[in-house]
Amino acid sequence: QDRSRGRCLCADKGANIVLVKNIKKVEIIPPSASCERQEIIVTLKNGAGRKCLNPESKFTKNIILKALEKQILPRAGFPQPRF
Amino acid sequence: QDRSRGRCLCADKGANIVLVKNIKKVEIIPPSASCERQEIIVTLKNGAGRKCLNPESKFTKNIILKALEKQILPRAGFPQPRF
């Protein structure tokens, strides 16, 4: 039996890709006593539910890195407020 | 009035730092029609609630990058399962 599954939220390794424009929220859940794997779960727009993303996929790493970069590079024509 | 606040979840720019060992979950919420700012919210362990993290702080970027790296560099003495 796969002991790493434990009380994880994701039943398997998850999707390698989702449409970025459909992402409402990304959750990163570090390994813990209840699940020894890191889990990454996206909530989709328009009530389309939640989906596990494969934390090892290039796509997953890239969307998260892009989200972080947006804080450095403001979106074109829509300047980031400066606090 | 600060139009960027909209229906954002975070009232202000958020904390620059939290104790990593207290983090249960990190949520990244991209800019949307209801809130034009990206928001990063951590859920703390032991029912200690949720806290907004400043998406522009070095700390925030680093904990997320570290979480992603863990997928590449397995934790010492606790090998990552290979699917």
Features:
homodimer; 83 residues; alpha+beta; 1 helix; globular
Q: Could you characterize what this model shows?
A:
The structure is a homodimer of 83-residue chains. Chain A is α+β, with helices and mostly antiparallel strands. Chain A is 14% helix and 20% strand. Chain A is built from one helix and three strands; from the N terminus they run E-E-E-H. Chain A has one helix at 58-69, and strands at residues 23-29, 39-44, 50-53. Chain A has a three-stranded antiparallel beta sheet with strand order 1-2-3, with no helix packed on it. In chain A, a hairpin with a 5-residue loop joins strand 2 (39-44) and strand 3. Strand 1 (23-29) of chain A pairs antiparallel with strand 1 of chain B, so a sheet runs across the interface.
- Give the mean pLDDT of chain A: 82
How many individual helices of chain A? Answer: 1
Count of extended strands of chain A: 3
| Cα Rg of chain A | 15 Å
Greatest chain-chain contact: A-B, 30 and 30 residues
Helix content of chain A: 10-25%
Order of strands side by side in the largest beta sheet of chain A?
A: 1-2-3
Low-pLDDT ranges of chain A: 72-78
Describe the global form of chain A. globular
The ordered string of helix (H) and strand (E) elements of chain A is EEEH
Oligomer: homodimer
